[in-house]
User: Which sequence fits this backbone?
């Protein structure tokens, strides 16, 4: 019988039935099936994969292909196509995610403008595209053209007066409510997994947990549509996090086109790591930052090969998005900026202050958001999601419309705040007082006194800051306009007090000393760093956004400061906090285990528990095994020599056991409840009239990971983290004592941190 290396270190075929003669005349069970039992080696929903087994399966598959490739030209071609399939898959993921991101950007831009008016040339044009070809726009009112009509102009015939303002206000709120109602209704009806940003769940999936349907085609379809609707409704959220979810859905769906990724959960997670990089690449226009984000923030297992493929996929996605050119500015994002003035060493002080603010804000935001989400889960509020979304949207729209900085989309707001004011800017933030300038550089204007519009904009920005901070806690977006206020303040301080000690020597009258847009960018990085605790990837993303190498040091200073301050106030980032809130079985690699406990303190069964459920290698019938499966809910069972000796033989998964027994009953005659089950290589002679036995050695793991009862728990935790184990058996002098699962470790860690250990379950 030809061996099949489906499982690691087990050169036997799973699901072997029938009787033949082995060496010395001892009956040997024969395999009557040409193919392995369907379903064996797969996982149930809400279970953790066995990384060791999956990697071993892939090594066996690769070894078999390499051996066959030397036998014929056709086999060699199959070997080459197998090696190339990973790069082809990355190409497809990049193309698909880039195309979807371009469509989302274009649709969201159009629907956001639809709340304020419509284009007469074609309702599918947004405001900017509608006025591109118009010859009747002025410099001061470049956004006004005859082709674009506000809702007040269409309904009451004029855009002036209180009645027109109320009409525009009413239409803005109505469109916002319609968009949010459609979004929440589609999610509830068709794809509940499409809610939220998705990054906490993707981190959990990448660690080996299975959530079926979370990255499926329905989730992708509904997430893409509702992301446009949610962003367009004006809720304080961005499309950056959800785009990571969309890209991972693309990666998961395309994996089904390739056998080696469809049948291997570990290989599929390598693709999902690359897809996460693609999501950030199209969200921020930062392919290198996307790769680093996947490496630093979401990936659990990131080999060098995945790094190269992530880089290629992010490159393809960025190229695809650039080809679509969704914003018409030849950039990948709406808020791409370029600063021209150098920064001075003394400016590190305000940059560090922004970092401190970002860290404090990040810690406050996480606590407030988690408290709100916990309240939603534990009270009647969570029973009415549609009503909750509509109320939040109504409050957001009613408060946002009067302030131009909260009325505009978040991408437009960031673009406005990052802007380096030039002569051709008609923005309120750039309306400085006119002063006689003898020499104007082609790159930068000198510092000037702020005009009345700038002070008005400062008040509006201050109100926008408070509004965004409060409403974002509820809606979980992270765009807080903090830095621009400090930047304008520093600029005016330098203009009016350039003789102060801190400005003397580097900021002379008529020079361009302070760039407020740079402060906005540093402030945004500090706040995002405080909330997510990202460092390297965040700095690279911001660098790719601005294209300025010289601003890396300010960004590094602010980002590290915000992380230190936020870590001092709370150890968890927002994604880790949501993972813990939802009870996902995620073993955080950043969390130190500093307690002096042993494996015997954590293993089950405890002293007061019933004895461990085990299967003997040759002494149990089909009925007894089925009864054991029915009476317990464990994911697997240790196989021992006998109940008396408790000497460990191996470990068998519950799902594999159920499928193999069912398959034997259907396909092998004579298998009944009284049939004996054997996990031994050869079977002892059977009584003449006994039913045919069942051999299941092929589904047993012959080399389960074991530790002794006196192994320190910090070593056990490291083993689980680095090998991605589902469970580990505890022995004493070769005798089985108990078992430690991933969930046992998480419960023990929660108990040591004075948290509720029963919260570690999928909810």
Assistant:
């Amino acid at each position: 019988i030809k061996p099949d290396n489906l499982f690691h270190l087990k050169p036997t075929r799973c699901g072997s039935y029938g009787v033949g003669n082995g060496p010395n005349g001892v009956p040997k069970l024969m395999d009557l099936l040409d193919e392995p039992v369907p379903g064996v080696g797969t996982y149930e929903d809400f279970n953790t994969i066995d990384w060791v087994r999956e990697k071993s399966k892939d090594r066996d598959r690769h070894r078999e292909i390499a051996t066959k490739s030397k036998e014929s030209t056709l086999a060699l071609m199959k070997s080459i196509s197998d090696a190339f399939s990973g790069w082809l898959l990355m190409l497809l993921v990049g193309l698909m995610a880039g195309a979807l991101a371009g469509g989302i950007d274009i649709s969201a831009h159009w629907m956001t403008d639809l709340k304020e008016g419509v284009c007469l040339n074609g309702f599918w044009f947004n405001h900017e595209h509608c006025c591109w070809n118009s010859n009747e726009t002025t410099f001061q009112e470049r956004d006004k053209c005859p082709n674009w009509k506000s809702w007040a102009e269409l309904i009451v015939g004029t855009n002036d007066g209180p009645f027109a303002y109320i009409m525009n206000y009413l239409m803005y709120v109505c469109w916002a409510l319609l968009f949010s109602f459609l979004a929440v209704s589609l999610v509830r009806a068709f794809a509940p997994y499409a809610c939220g940003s998705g990054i906490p769940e993707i981190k959990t999936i990448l660690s080996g947990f299975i959530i079926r349907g979370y990255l499926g085609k329905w989730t992708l379809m509904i997430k893409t549509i509702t992301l446009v609707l949610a962003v367009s409704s004006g809720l304080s959220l961005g499309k950056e996090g959800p785009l990571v979810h969309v890209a991972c859905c693309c990666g998961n769906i395309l994996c089904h086109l390739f056998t080696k990724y469809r049948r291997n959960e570990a290989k599929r997670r390598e693709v999902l790591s690359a897809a996460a990089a693609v999501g950030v690449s199209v969200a921020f226009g930062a392919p290198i930052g996307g790769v680093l984000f996947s490496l630093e923030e979401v990936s659990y297992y990131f080999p060098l090969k995945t790094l190269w493929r992530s880089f290629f996929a992010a490159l393809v996605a960025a190229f695809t998005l650039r080809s679509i050119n969704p914003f018409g500015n030849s950039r990948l994002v709406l808020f791409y900026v370029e600063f021209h003035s150098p920064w001075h060493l003394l400016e590190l002080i305000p940059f560090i202050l922004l970092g401190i603010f970002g860290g404090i804000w990040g810690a406050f935001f996480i606590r407030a958001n988690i408290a709100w989400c916990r309240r939603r889960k534990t009270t009647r509020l969570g029973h009415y999601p549609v009503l909750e979304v509509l109320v939040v949207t109504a409050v957001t729209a009613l408060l946002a419309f009067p302030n131009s900085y909260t009325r505009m989309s978040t991408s437009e707001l960031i673009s406005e705040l990052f802007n380096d004011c030039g002569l051709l800017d008609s923005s309120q933030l750039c309306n400085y007082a006119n002063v006689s300038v003898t020499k104007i550089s082609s790159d930068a204007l000198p510092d000037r006194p702020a005009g009345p519009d700038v002070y008005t904009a400062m008040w509006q920005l201050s109100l926008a800051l408070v509004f965004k901070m409060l409403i974002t806690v509820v809606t979980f977006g992270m765009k807080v306009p903090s830095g621009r206020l400090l930047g304008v303040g520093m600029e005016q301080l330098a203009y009016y007090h350039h003789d102060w000690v801190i400005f003397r020597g580097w900021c002379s009258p008529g020079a361009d000393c302070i760039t407020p847009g740079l402060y906005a960018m540093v402030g945004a990085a500090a706040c995002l760093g405080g909330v997510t605790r990202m460092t390297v990837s965040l700095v690279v993303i911001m660098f790719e956004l601005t294209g300025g190498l010289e601003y890396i040091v300010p960004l590094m200073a602010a980002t590290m400061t915000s992380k230190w301050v936020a870590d001092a106030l709370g150890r968890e980032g927002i994604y880790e906090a949501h993972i813990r809130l939802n009870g996902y079985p995620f073993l955080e690699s950043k969390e130190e285990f500093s307690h002096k406990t042993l494996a015997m303190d954590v293993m089950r069964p405890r002293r007061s528990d019933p004895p461990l459920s085990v299967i003997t290698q040759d002494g149990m019938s089909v009925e007894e095994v089925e009864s054991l499966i029915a009476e317990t809910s464990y994911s697997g069972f240790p196989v021992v020599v006998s109940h008396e000796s408790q000497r460990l033989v191996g470990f068998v998964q519950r799902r594999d056991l159920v499928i193999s027994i069912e398959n034997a009953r259907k396909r092998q005659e004579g298998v009944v409840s009284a049939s004996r089950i054997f996990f031994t290589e050869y079977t002892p002679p059977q009584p003449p009239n006994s039913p045919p036995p069942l051999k299941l050695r092929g589904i047993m793991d012959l080399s389960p990971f074991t530790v002794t009862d006196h192994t320190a728990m910090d070593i056990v935790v490291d083993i689980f983290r680095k090998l991605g184990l589902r469970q580990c058996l505890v022995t004493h002098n070769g005798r089985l004592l108990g078992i430690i699962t991933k969930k046992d470790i998480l419960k023990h860690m929660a108990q040591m941190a004075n948290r509720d250990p029963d919260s570690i379950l999928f909810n």
Q: What stands out?
A: The mean pLDDT is 83.
